[in-house]
Amino acid sequence: MSVRVMTIFGTRPEAIKMAPLMKELQSRPGIEALCCVTAQHRQMLDSVLEIFRLTPDYDLDIMEPRQTLSTITTKCLLGLEGVFEQAKPDLVLVHGDTSTTFAGALAAFYHRIQVGHVEAGLRTWDKWSPFPEEMDRKLVGDIADLHFAPTKANRDNLFREDIRDGVFITGNTVIDALKTTVRPDFRFTTPLLNELDYAGKKIVLVTCHRRENYGQPMADIMTALRRIAEDFPDVELVYPVHLSPVVREAAGKYLSGHPRIHLIDPLDVEEMHNLMARAYLVMTDSGGLQEEAPALGRPVLVLRKETERPEAVAAGTVKLAGVEQETVYSMAAELLTDEAAYAAMAHAVNPYGDGHACRRIADAIEWKFGLRTDRPEAFGM
Ligand code: UD1
Ligand code: UDP
Question: Where are the beta strands (DSSP E) in the chain?
Fold first, then answer.
């Protein structure tokens, strides 16, 4: 008898972090691995599915332009009813903190299906920031039966909420993914990325998309970015702009029309990881980039007021730059002019994983369902 495990995901970062886990689950003879995508993201999700050669068993295709949190959540809940009735999984795996994650866990709970939470235990302890992610992951923490915490600090956060059973420290699956994508001889298919002068110029890789940054914070951040390009002639700023219309409008307004600011479409994950590996500096409000860039030895300025990923801040490769124009500008200016300050941040650290998170998660599932007797060892302990 095999255990039926269904992964559910919908956005780009969930797909990047769940794809290597799907492969691992598929390789286990005792597990029947099924994949359901909500397609909360469409193009950005399909790009990841193509790179990792994953074909979902179910596709809810829910994305709408300018979708709201309510439409995403209700469409997922309703769509998953039919999926669960047909597939009857023993365990549902959700990832992280998106609306798909929350709705996937809630739908499984309504159907009395066990839930495993991948990337569990990240917290800022501020329910409004990141919004809605902090509440999504807290609520999923209450629902889940298995909690795959990337780090010890994440596990301790769960302990603080009295979540103690079924908690495993696994590392983050993004480090597993990174091991398959970054290659020294990688050739980009986006022409600009082959033309950039990586040795002579300072490539600043930017992403910015968070809902709590919409409006004034995003305007401030983008104005600071423009000033950086204007004041430092050796900077080439590369910004693959998220497909959200709110973000595209802001980027067009504040950053277009400068010869050294390159606003480009979202990159596929291989191009993104290989560009990051060659960049001088990363400036971002993304969660995933805060994990990837330190592993690649690239300094990161986080364009947020807080972070649920304090490990790389403690290791010295990530700094919180906030969302105010003057601070963002001056922190970037320091790293562009002060070699010692730059060198102090530019070293590779791997607090988020060792590339074996997927193996530990699959082992833990097998252990939980009686397919093995040994509990997996914890990452970093
Ligand atoms: C979502 C997640 C956020 C995560 C981010 C990763 C929620 C509430 N937010 O935010 O936690 O960090 O994904 O990128 O779950 N769009 C497209 N094509 C795509 C993707 C998006 O056109 O492939 C446009 C659509 O108009 C869509 C809008 O972007 O309505 C916003 O997408 P949505 O998933 O609601 O929010 P994100 O900001 O992407
Ligand atoms: N990413 C990508 N192409 C891009 C921008 C980001 O492949 O143009 C990858 C990035 O390397 C990371 C993930 O997408 O693995 C992060 O996604 P995002 O920033 O959208 O979401 P978050 O991590 O903030 O939830």
Answer: 3-9, 31-37, 58-59, 91-95, 114-118, 146-149, 167-169, 202-207, 235-240, 261-264, 281-284, 300-302, 318-320
